[in-house]
Amino acid sequence: MIRVEGLTRRYGSTLAVVDVSFHVEAGQVLALVGGSGAGKTTTLKMINRLVEPDAGRVVVEGKDAASVEPHALRRSIGYVFQGIGLFPHMTVAENVAMPLRLAAWERDKIGARVGELLALVEIDPPLAGRFPASLSGGEQQRVGVARALAASPRVMLLDEPFGALDPLTRDRLQRSFDGLRRRLGLTAVFVTHDMAEALVLADLIGVMRAGRLVQVGTPAELARCPADEGVASLVDAPRRQARLVASRLEGRS
Amino acid sequence: MTEQLALLPEYLSAHVRLTLAALAAGILLAVPAGVVVARVRALEAPVLALAGVIQTVPALALLAMMVPLLSGLGLPGIGTLPAFLALVLYSLLPILRNAVTGLHGVDAAVLEAARGLGMTRNERLLHVELPLALPVIVAGVRTATVWTVGMATLSTPIGAPSLGNYIFGGLQTRNTAAILTGCVAAAVLALGLDAIVRGVAVGLSARRRRPLAVAALLLLALASWAWTPPARTGSASASRPIVVGAKTFTEQYVLAEILAGTVHARTGRATRTLPSLGSAVAFDALCRDEIDLYVDYTGTLWATVMGRKGAGGSRREMEAEVRRWLLERNGVTLAASLGFENAYCFAVRRDTAERLGLVTLSDLARHARDLSLASDYEFFAREEWRAVESAYGLAFRARRTMDPSLLYRAIEAAQVDAITAYSSDGRIEALGLVVLEDERRAIPPYDAVVLAGRRLAREAPDALAALRELDGAIDVARMRSLNRLVDEQGRSPAAAASSFLRDRRLHVPERTPLAR
User: Does residue B70 sit at the A interface (CB-CB below 8 Å)?
Assistant: First the structure.
């Protein structure tokens, strides 16, 4: 469904992404994990050509991304932005309707679809007429997801979608996203620096470091035979943390 | 005051037309230009610099520059067109600069979101960049609105009627009520238009229907009022009225009314006066038939139009030469010589003259280094000044330039020691000023002559014949008393003119008064 071959991108003399290849099957979710500056977001943006690769190839739904007009490619792929990226001058409903207007849907169909989408991401109908600034962070992110889903894409890209949320909201949104993507059969790539989030949500995890994809595999594969110490420590981190948390909660240290 | 208010519809509607048209054109030019400049970074610096340079040209100079520029292109150099173009140029910078600033100020994350959703460049512009830049662009439009309303008052001297007619006319004829009316009307208009623009902005950006509808309605009402032609009174003939021009001082206003009244009474032709033209503008306008008649002075024509140096013999010889030259070169007819001179002359207060024993310009030259001299805008740039300066070796302690109407006040209040007065000015007598004799005849004669354009001579020979009646009809004492009626006794130029016309048993028709 999404095939990435030898993607490379440099900024000046810095190599941001070097020779990254992976393959995500239909209905699978891949999490790109790594520290900041590891090249996760650049890799993600090369999939819908927000960043043009210097070398390599992206194939989405069987079509070479380079052969499609960039705006047409992007319309076929849902995108959830780091920092949400809602249009501040449009209401919630108008934000969600934007992809449909770009696809030249009829007005009354748009209204019905927007209602459906807001229900899907559990946004109360009265919020539809409000501007994004008056919504909570969690509500804004749900609207962002609704907007990304508007044109019924089969592929979604998410850039640290839950990064800026409080833990309870993040937990709730993670679970609702997990439900959604299974229900809709979405193929998705998402970027996170939180290994726990990757383990909870992803079928495949790609670990990136200094522009390179160090290892890609299922959570179990990564845990069983990590490519190096770093990957092993990264995969183990949530468990270590959980143990520590448990012991602190039980008052043992 | 009621007289002033009677003129308001005419001046205000002209002002509104000029302002709205210039603003509309300014917005239509500057916003797209701002979009292009915001996209093509290389253009930004040169385009903004150019707009900035236009802005630094003083408004009056920019307007004045339009006159020769348009004439050079074979377009009407006086009237509404040059005023419109200058105002458009002037309105560009604030709108352009704010459009660029506003577009650059759009949050990069929002722009990336727009790209990520698959918007094309134009869709991003339409749905995201322009709406988000709108408040900043509107702020620029508001600045431009207030500037344009103010600057439009300066279009009077290039022949475009505006609220400036009140101000220029009032300044020349010492009519405070007129000046005040013009200023207050301009201020109210500026505030009103600003409120309308703000209403449009609020309506668009917060998408509230009511302010948008109210603002749009007000704008529409204002525009339709301004563009509705007024019911013309007494325009029996459908042909263009005979247009009588006037330069920017009292005598010219009075004479324009006299010419217009005489032609109308004798021929029944419709006439219109176009007051407050710049000195050089008037002659150019006549040559291009934009006005049909005005009064000029042989010495002025001699020096500034014909470019001759020194005096050209006697008054008679000079007038004959001017007559021949104008007809040959410009097809302009010297229709009548009114019978008085309005020469530049040097005047001092009586006490100064007595204290220093001043009788002639040679006497003045001896004391000049201790004295200050004030003159009108043009004198120091004229041939006559150079002639006087070199003939007498005049070198003053200080030279000041001011509006002609203020010269007399300045010398009365002893703020200057000497002024260049106009020999037919009623205030020389009224203030008891002493005119110094030009014993070396450095200043040429300044006989007042009626000039008629080519079109008038061809199409209205009867008007030309009627004007011949005015040959020798006004001596200098008469002109001074007419000027004094306006300058000292507060009558309108039209009223002064009718007193003259009545004496000549000419029927004085109901006409719109000129400046009061």
Answer: no
Please report the beta strands in chain A, taking only residues with DSSP state E, as ranges in sequence order. Answer: 2-11, 14-24, 29-33, 55-60, 63-64, 77-80, 155-159, 187-192, 204-209, 212-217
- pTM for the model: 0.73
SS3 B174: coil
Express each pLDDT in B445-494 by its tens digit. 889 999 999 988 888 889 999 999 899 999 988 998 999 888 888 888 88
Cβ atoms < 10 Å from Cβ of B210: 10
Q: Could you give the 3-state DSSP secondary structure of residue A33?
A: strand
pLDDT digits (tens, 9 = 90+) for A78-105: 999 887 789 999 999 999 999 999 999 9
Q: What is the DSSP letter of B472?
A: T
C-alpha distances out from residue B294 to B64, B161, B285, Å: 20, 17, 10
**Distance in angstroms (rounded) separating the CA atoms of residues B243 and B259:** 10
Q: Tokens in use for B296?
A: 């000029």
Which pair of tokens denotes residue A160? 């640290």
Interface list for A 73-102 with B (CB within 8 A):
73-76, 79, 81, 83, 85-89, 98-99, 102
Closest by Cα among B353, B421, B365, B420 to B391 = B365
Burial group, residue A5, by CB count within 10 angstroms (0-12, 13-18, 19+): middle
Count of CB atoms within 10 A of residue A2's CB? 22
The residue type at B145: T
Assigned token pair, A144: 């962002």
In this structure, are residues B11 and B77 in contact, taking their beta carbons and an 8 Å threshold?
no
Q: What is the ipTM of this complex?
A: 0.89
Q: Which residues of A touch B118 (CB under 8 A)?
A: 71-76, 99, 102
B115 closest CB neighbour out of A50, A76, A87: A50
Sheet holding B242-247, edge to edge: B271-277, B242-247, B293-297, B447-452, B333-341
Q: Would you tell me which residues 100-129 of chain B have a C-beta closer than 8 angstroms to some C-beta of chain A?
A: 107, 109-110, 112-120, 123, 127-128
Q: Which of B407, B403, B410, B15 is nearest to B181 (CA)?
A: B15
- Whose tokens are 């090249």? That residue is A39
CA separation for the pair B131, B154 (Å, rounded): 35
